[in-house]
User: Fold this.
Amino acid sequence: MIPRPIIPTVCGFIASSFSVGPLTNTLPFSLKKGGGVAGPASNLLVGVDIGGTFTDCVVLDRAGRITATKAPSTPGNFAEGMLAAMRVAAERLGLSFERFCSEIAVLTHGTTVGTNALIQRKGARVGLITTRGHEDAIHIMRGSRGVSSRDILKVVHFPSSQKPVPIVPKRLIEGVSERVDCFGEVVVPLNESEAESAVERLVEAGAEAIGVCFLWSFKYPRHEQRVKEMIGRIAPNLFVSCSTDIAPKWGEYERVTATALNAYIGPVMAKYLGNLDGQLKRSSRRS
Assistant:
């Protein structure tokens, strides 16, 4: 299972794919004939970066030696190129792929899957639940800072400027009654009936992911977390992104944007990492 939330970044992190123990400096370490690594605990730090042409794999062993390998990237299924680069690394270390995987303490993975989904507008259909009266924050943006033109005359003359199309359309934004002040005190309790109806409407509208962002929620996360629980009950397979999990900091527009972006690429990344996780497990068992 892929951990959620997924931070909006081009990097994914997979460490749970293998049954490994903690990496320490006190465990015995020895070299096998052929350059392989032997020891009772996991000994390798592995980093894999997928580029448009090649996939690079770098392995750091307990003795500080670095093994770098490369394989062609496979856009149809990026996991294949990643596995190929890792297999080359295992071969150079004199290990079977299964043994190589069992020796991994940490596997980090860099990919542009999330970035590509955002740039190409191929992310999930996102619904947004926010404090009633603040539904347009993500559309208003930050004044001229959201202008896509570089012409200064158009930047300062708003009628001539053009902002990018928000990833959450207005029809998929729901406002619910609740209010928390800047000190974290509840001014208006969460209207759970409104929140439940909002979730149901978004699900009926075809939302594939839902972002939840309330005013000053980082001072009092309970309202957002309660809505998250409702979504889990009404639509358990829906991806949920809460601002208190993603960006618990001051700045309404910044928080709602980060929350929406995470919801937008979250299902894409979850599917990708889930598929990659499965292929890594199957490949290590077959080898």
In short: The chain has a mean pLDDT of 82. Residues 58 and 187 are 53 Å apart (CA to CA). The chain is about 35% helix and 20% strand.
